[in-house]
Amino acid sequence: MALPMITGHLIGAAVPTALRAVRHWMFHLGGIGLIPLGLLDNSPIPLPGIMDVETILLAGRQQKFWIYYAVMATASDDSFLYVWNEVA
């Protein structure tokens, strides 16, 4: 009975740490981080809306680069869409 409770606590403690690490990694990469995200977004297992959310977060954090983030998101999304269509 105690094992599921301990497992739940470990998962509960690990999830915020993992999310914080991913958020730090994405902010650190900036616009370049949108390129692998574009690959994931157009993969067979899509992440709907993730490009929009990441672009909004990056643009909100550094408002003077909003056009750069918008162009990077569009370019990476469209280029990987083209690649996946050619593969299929």
Describe the structure.
It contains four helices and no strands. The protein is an all-alpha fold and 88 residues long. Helix 2 packs antiparallel against helix 3 and helix 2 (34-41) runs parallel beside helix 4 (66-87). The longest helix has 28 residues, at 2-29. The mean pLDDT is 78.
Summarize, please.
The protein is mainly alpha-helical. The protein has helices spanning 2-29, 34-41, 50-61, 66-87.
Give short descriptive properties of this protein.
flat; mainly alpha
Shape descriptor reads flat
Bin the strand percentage: under 5%
Report the strand count.
0
Q: What percent of residues adopt helix (DSSP H or I)? A: over 70%
Helix/strand/pairing class, anyone? mainly alpha
Radius of gyration: 17 Å
* Model regions low in confidence, pLDDT < 50 over at least 5 residues: none
Order of helices and strands: HHHH
For the sheet with most strands, the description reads: none
Number of folding domains? 1
List the total number of helices.
Answer: 4
Mean pLDDT, nearest integer?
Answer: 78
How far apart the termini lie comes to 49 Å
Set down the secondary structure blueprint:
Elements lengths: L1 H28 L4 H8 L8 H12 L4 H22 L1
Helix pairs in contact: 2-3, 2-4, 3-4
